[in-house]
């Protein structure tokens, strides 16, 4: 599974965990990623995307067709 959101591009960030004694250790802040199926009416099929919860909200607002077209363009550029 990818470790980034295919819609928003969110990736893990890194920082420090600070204990009560103020010792610092490395930690990783992962985005809330979900593997989700979306129905594409124009193509008559489902597509499966790894999206963050923010990406799901983006799809709700902009629509799956517009977001899918942008994802396809970005995949082609890679």
UniProtKB/TrEMBL annotation:
Transmembrane segments: none annotated. Keywords: Ribonucleoprotein, Ribosomal protein. One of its GO terms (molecular function) is structural constituent of ribosome. One of its GO terms (cellular component) is ribonucleoprotein complex. It holds the Pfam family Ribosomal_L28. It comes from the Bacteria. GO terms for biological process: translation. PANTHER family: 50S RIBOSOMAL PROTEIN L28 (PTHR39080), LARGE RIBOSOMAL SUBUNIT PROTEIN BL28A (PTHR39080:SF1). Belongs to the bacterial ribosomal protein bL28 family. NCBIfam families: L28 (TIGR00009). This is Large ribosomal subunit protein bL28. It comes from Klenkia taihuensis. The gene is rpmB.
């Amino acid at each position: 599974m990818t470790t980034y959101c295919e819609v928003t591009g969110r990736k893990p960030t890194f920082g420090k965990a600070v204990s009560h004694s103020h010792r610092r250790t490395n930690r990783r802040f992962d985005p809330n990623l979900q593997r989700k199926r979306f129905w594409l009416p124009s193509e008559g099929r489902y597509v499966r995307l790894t999206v963050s919860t923010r990406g799901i909200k983006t799809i709700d607002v902009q629509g799956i067709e517009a977001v899918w077209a942008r994802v396809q363009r970005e995949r082609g550029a890679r």
